[in-house]
Write a structure and sequence with these properties.
With 91 residues, this protein is mainly α. It contains 4 helices and no strands.
Length: 91
């Protein structure tokens, strides 16, 4: 269905296309959809999410929304720390 984790990867790829086109709000929307699918599938601590959250932070930076980018990077740091306790080989 539309909420399968493989669809999340497609949404992330679509976000990347929009980001490269300078359509940052659209990119963020698709990145958020990707993350939402993983969270709904109880994959909220999956290492892929670090990159996906970072994609959003980069879009914020490209929009001069630096405070939001900083907040996102704090979330990334927390996720990275959490993951490192459970997946030692990844981080």
């Amino acid at each position: 269905g539309d909420n399968h984790p493989s669809i999340a990867i497609t949404y992330n790829n679509m976000g990347s296309v929009y980001q490269h086109q300078g359509k940052y709000d659209d990119a963020i929307l698709f990145y958020e959809k990707s993350i939402s699918i993983y969270v709904d599938a109880h994959l909220q601590n999956h290492p892929k999410l670090i990159k996906w959250y970072n994609n959003i932070a980069t879009c914020y930076d490209q929009q001069n929304r630096h405070d939001q980018a900083t907040e996102m990077r704090c979330c990334i740091a927390n996720l990275r720390e959490h993951i490192s306790h459970h997946h030692k080989s990844i981080v």
